[in-house]
Please model this.
Amino acid sequence: MQFDLYERPALLFGLVFVVFLALSSVVAIAPALDAQEKYEPLPASEPLSPKAAHGLRVYIAEGCPVCHTQQVRSLAMDSQWGRPTVAADYARLRGMSWWQETPGVLGSERVGPDLSNIGKRQPSEAWQLIHLFNPRAVSPWSVMPRFRELFTVDAEPPAGSVVVPVPQRFAPAEGKVVATERALALVAYLASLKQAPLGQPSQVNTAPSIVTGTGAGLYAVNCAACHQPTGEGVPATFPPLKGDPLVNAADATAHIATVLHGAEGRVIGGVKYPITMPPFGDQLDDEQIAAIVNHERTSWGNHVSTVTASDVARVRKGAAP
Amino acid sequence: MDPQLRSKLTRRPLAVAKAAIDELIDDDHGLTTLVFAYLVSAAWWLVFGTLVGLYLSLKFVWPELDGVSWLSFGRLRPIHTNTVFWGWSSHGMVGLAYYVVPRTCRRRLYSYRLGWVALGLMSASVLAGDLCLAAGISNGAQEYRELVWPVMLMFASGLALTLYNFYRTVVGRTTREIYISNWYVLGALIWTLTLITISYLPFYQRGFGETVIQGYYMHQGVGMWFTPMVLGLTYYFLPKFLNKPIYSYSLGVLAFWTQMFFYTMIGSHHFLYSPLPWWLQTVAILFSIGMIVPVVAGTANFLLTMRGSGHALRSSYAVPFLLVGVVYYFVGSMQGSFEALRSLNLLWHFSSYTVGHSHITMYGFVSFLIWGGAYGLLPRLSGREAPHLSIGIHFWLAFIGLMIYGVSLSVGGTLQGLSWKHGEPFQNSVVLMAPYWLWRAVGGTLMFGSHLLFGFNMWHMLPGRTPALPEPLTQEPARAI
Model:
């Protein structure tokens, strides 16, 4: 080297620093600044409530993003998690305190499902609480940790406390499981995770995949969390569909109406089910609801006539099929 | 049995005989103590950090293992990663560099006191960071940025003192040129301090800005710190242990500058198909392919240096570690370049494949090179060797353990990605992983076992007792650096 670069430390290491800083400005600082300034929250999105904001802090403290992404890629294989996420979806995130950075919720690994739209996909507070208390009570295949410390066990829960209807097999021998404030905050945060409409249709190839286009796939994504892949439900917690009189009725009106509008406080076979079933009419179209209903009416030994999308449309309007 | 054969068998030693260390190279007691302090600290963090890792791997097999908040997966996982990053690997590399930098500058270290202060700051930050994470106190940002800034500031201060110490040593060197190891070591310190500063400043990290910085940080944190640091050390240790000059200085120069130009650009490949600007993703992919240049240059340089030194491989217990490290540098880096291709990324990203990749690189590449350096250098400093057999067992447990770990997660992760691509219900991808997660735990157990042996070997090599080796035979050969 004519200018003796390798003999002059100030020059060599000065160069190493300046070039790195310049490259970093181009690929990190400038695009970050641009992303921060350019993207406004979507008009239809809502800021976190104070309770949900507390829940986000629990979400970060417990390291939930280690296994759960909140990033739906612009790929057909990701479509079961919702529409592709856009930068504006994250625009409301801020540093959580003077000692904490903006929460990184996108994640890098999907050991568990993506949660971008979990508030819509699984709106039941009771399900979320049972699942946090012991994930295997509702998802036998799950490898998620149980968050025992988010709950207390009380022989006589004080008035106003939220008692979690844990299935008997997983419930403590004595006393009732009561959700703590942290648990309720975390569930409030999960409930807030609903993808706001974009205003314009997404440009991604949304050709139906198994999970968005077939009855079995739609059932797996929307129904199996409670009614289980076997259709057997969870004893005294989520009713079975296998052999259920309503599902096996020749007239499918009540079955379709339940999927469309949800259910509350039903007594089936002498058992009163405490958990509210959410309505699916606003998330799924007639075609998809018909596919789910037909899957339920023809699986696990159920064997009754199937329905069509126009049957669903008629029930939606309030008429008999 | 044929008596001759029997006597042959019984006389065969349990392990291949390795040459004993026959020279003491330094009588600088202060430096020896400092280097050992770093390495002992590193060994402790290795055992602790990988015990946590092993426990985590068991949780995939037995999710009901415990119900204790601070043992929960989400809290322990960053404890594992941060401990092996900032504890084990960083302490190990910096400790070895405290020997290599003054040695290649042919002068004493500028300040021993600063070296001790830096060690205190780095160790304290790892301890404080682990306690914070266990208590649920997290920076909130994503991988390797979980430590809150006061904790990370302590760590960065340790690096800054080290940089200052090394820089003053280089300035006062008695050689004409700055040896290539020092470019890498000081370069790594400069880049990492810049990186930590940029990534912890909050001014551009609201909303999606955080993700842009995260892609930049999580990648650079590995590739502009561990990679150049450990390569710099290898540019000293490999020629030193083989007692011959490096094959090509020019290849080393090429690898150094291309590392800086290419690697800095590629962080965004961790967020392909995300809302990151498409141009940024494409730049990241292009330069990921460009990384083949420094990787091939570096690997070829090391392998060509080793060529014709089969005897050293057979007779030294340090060189096999270096060889594995160099091979995994190539394998892991190539794997990284391919993972950046959109068609493969969509399959492997989010899957366990990436966890396998990070172990192939951080363990197969970085850890093996640190072990090679430690086993070659420390006995020459203290005059005390570890039993060759337990070093050999360390090598094979770590090597086979990583092989099992890497293969199981690479295969399992690919199947996971295919399951998603075929649009199967999510639970299928969890159920199908069960055997691969079990094998990962098996591999992890072997790896952890090897770390206990490393700790045992460290204890054997500690100075302070009567030297077991003869006095220095000769001065260090002049051509060794």
